[in-house]
Amino acid sequence: MNRRGEAFEIESGLPESEVRAAAEATKAADVETPLRWFEFCRKYMAGRWRTSAAKTREGMADGLAAVTLAMVKRGKEAPSDEYLRLAFRWGIVPANEGVNPPTGLKSSYDWLTTAGRPVVDLVDTEVFEDVLYRLSYRLDGTPAAGDTYKRRRRALNTALEHAVAMGELPENPLQRVRRKHIGSNVVVDRRVLVNAVQARQLLTAVSYVGSWDRCRGRRLVAFYAVLYYAGLRPAEAVGLRLSDCHLPETGWGTLTLRETRPVSGKQWTDSGERHDRRGLKAREASTDRPVPIPPVLVAILQSHLKEFGTAREGRVFGNERGGVVGSSTYWRVWEEAREYALPLERVSSPLAGRPYDLRHACITRWLNAGVPIAEVARRVGNSPEVIHRRYHGCIDGHEEAANQKIERIMLEEGD
Question: pTM of this prediction?
Answer without folding.
Answer: 0.64
